[in-house]
From TrEMBL, chains A, B:
Residues 14-68 form the HTH lacI-type domain. This is LacI family transcriptional regulator. PROSITE patterns: HTH_LACI_1, HTH_LACI_2. The keyword Transcription regulation applies. CDD domains: HTH_LacI, PBP1_LacI_sugar_binding-like. The keyword Transmembrane does not apply. InterPro entries: HTH_LacI, LacI/GalR-like_sensor, Lambda_DNA-bd_dom_sf, Peripla_BP_I. Keywords: DNA-binding, Transcription, Transcription regulation.
Length: 351, 351
DNA sequence: AGGTACCGTGGGAGCGCTCCCATAGGTGAT
DNA sequence: ATCACCTATGGGAGCGCTCCCACGGTACCT
């Protein structure tokens, strides 16, 4: 407590050069030790490490960034208002996954919101200044210009869900198609036949894929597609409510609903209640995400679980690889990697 | 869209030097323009700004940090597990306030969690490397070593609540004492006389102050302090429940409860229900924070509101001043600034 | 013995800025 | 006209690191 050891001898913090002098070696050698190069003899390494410890040496990040042209930082960009970030468990789960994986690294994570135009402006500036080595982009809409900006700036990036089937950026996603299928198959297995679907925002590719899975599962089971049973939602509770009301008035005989998210399922549940339908007796309900909402709903909601935390982990993995691969010149765009993780359906009382 | 202008002429991004050449001036002059120095003629400034625009110049942060010995970044440190951060609206409100105030700045905000030992280790390393110009520390406990570490490293810092009456670090807090008083006065005005208090964690100074306010308000109204009516909680729902049970068994005649947080009030409400007490007929209930919980409780909860978002804003203000003041040598420790913001009681059906 | 190969190492040359000193010119007072 | 003084400007000297080339030494080959 009373002594700060050998620190601050000459006023400031120790530099590489001082460590070198102390260890009786050259600057280059200390640099090699610090960076874990194998081309250093054990004896030298030990001497340097001792000097580092004695002086309490910590490398100066700015100098390193300047000399090596890298920042050892990556950004998690959330192109949404902060509110959604705090409201939807999706984001915190991703963050948790990324954070867990990052702990093994020397990298620093920046959290950047880009919901408003102004924030996007700042972000563009920030990226142009190359202040991060890579970017994780979550919740991307079809017409978002951010991905293009990133590839233009040649900043490695990974997105949480492809924007289309022709996505070129590396991405990590869960199997939305399979998730959609499994929801429907689950309901069919429970004897339901008139299964409606409340979709998510259709400018989100994943939401489209859930619809595809829904349609194919029904068709494979021999049911003709009935477009009257598909109603677009927007991932909000109100949207779910609205969609449910529309569905009920259009086809009062429906006996099941697959909602594209738990939040929308909550809205749908409310609408079903108001219409006097019992869950699951009259109408079975299945959501998507398996969030806290699903567990706490009355009745508890069956839901398609995505391994969100793992998605975060995998996104970081991909990004780090991407950053490492940036060395051999001009291999841009070759074999982009798309990871798809399996979903599984968690059955509860609502179906 | 199709052209990226003059960018990338010589492979990389433009440098100060290139801008200077383009504008026909020296490096120093460009630097002055970039940094808003007044000692530049209007004509020269215009020429430089034109060159900057044409080349799409963006200063290299690393170089600037190295040369100027500052990072233009500050950290918001949350010495708690991430879960609390996402669960409690307090943190997101602070973040929102800080973010809003920061938007006018060139500064970058880093969000750092230091809940686990490992994370704290990393944080210490990070701070030792002086990678931020200042730190905002929220939710500090009495025995937290972080504040001392910060002053040892001579890193400007502001904390969200003083650790004690003798706090030396600049801090921003709401008037916990006044908040506690107002809750009690509100209940007294409603004709309640046997007012219990469920406290927060007493190693949080603010929680203590609420207790002080509670005691003084009762005493000023002529009621003798009855220590049987004070029960420690821990800011959790379970803690609130437990405390309420204890209070009821100790003194069944109580007719009001002031809980040190809305979350604890929720726990208390549950316990009151289980004991068959009606709210507010039998027992009036007042919480603290005026969070979403308060509005959604059944019945809606009266609560002491703190201007959390403004606290965030003020914290940033203080920190920026602190950073700016760091220039004139050795004025350390002189007139630390402590800001205290007023609370106000939001009356609802629970009291 | 001479040659070739590699290994561990030292240190120069920057990375792109900011800081600050020096300089040139302009202004007003003497 | 002279001097003192101020303002706008140029550019050298670093900030602390990484990269890379060059060096001496050792080991192994022919």
């Amino acid at each position: 407590m009373a002594s700060h050891g050998a620190r601050g001898r000459s006023g400031g913090r120790p530099t590489l050069e001082e460590v070198a002098a102390r260890a009786g070696v050259g600057r280059g050698t200390v640099s090699r030790v610090i960076n874990g190069s194998p081309r250093v003899s054990d004896a030298t390494r030990a001497a340097v490490e001792a000097a580092v410890a004695e002086l309490g040496y910590v490398p100066n990040t700015a100098a390193r960034a300047l000399a090596a042209n890298r920042t050892d930082a990556i950004a998690l960009v959330v192109p949404e208002p902060e509110t959604r970030f705090f409201t939807e468990p999706y984001f915190s789960d991703i963050l948790r996954g990324v954070g867990a994986e990052l702990a093994d690294t020397e990298m620093q994570l920046l959290l950047i919101f880009a919901g408003s135009d102004r924030e996007r402006q700042r972000l563009a500036q920030y990226l142009a200044a190359h202040r991060v080595d890579g970017v994780l982009l979550v919740s991307v809409h079809a017409d978002d210009p951010l991905p293009d900006l990133l590839s233009q700036l040649e900043i490695p990036a990974v997105i949480s869900g492809p924007r289309s089937a022709a996505e070129t950026l590396p991405s990590v996603d869960s199997d939305n198609y399979g998730g959609g299928r499994s929801a429907v198959e689950h309901l069919l297995a429970r004897g339901r036949t008139r299964i409606a679907h409340i979709t998510g925002r259709l400018d989100v590719y994943g939401a489209q894929r859930r619809v595809d899975g829904y349609r194919d599962a029904l068709r494979d089971a021999g049911y003709e597609a009935d477009e009257g049973l598909v109603e677009p939602g927007d991932f909000t509770e109100e949207g779910g409510h609205r969609a449910m009301v529309a569905l009920l008035s259009r086809d009062p005989s429906l006996d099941a609903v697959f909602a594209g998210s738990d939040v929308m399922a909550a809205g749908a549940r409310q609408a079903l209640r108001e219409a006097g339908r019992r869950i699951p007796e009259d109408v079975a309900l299945v959501g998507y995400d398996d969030s806290a909402i699903a567990r706490h709903m009355d009745p508890p909601l069956s839901s398609v679980r995505q391994p969100i935390e793992e998605m975060g982990r995998r996104m970081l993995d991909l990004l780090l690889t991407e950053i490492a691969d940036r060395r051999p010149a001009a291999s841009r765009g070759l074999e982009p990697r798309q990871v798809v993780l399996a979903t599984d359906l968690v059955g509860r009382a609502s179906s």
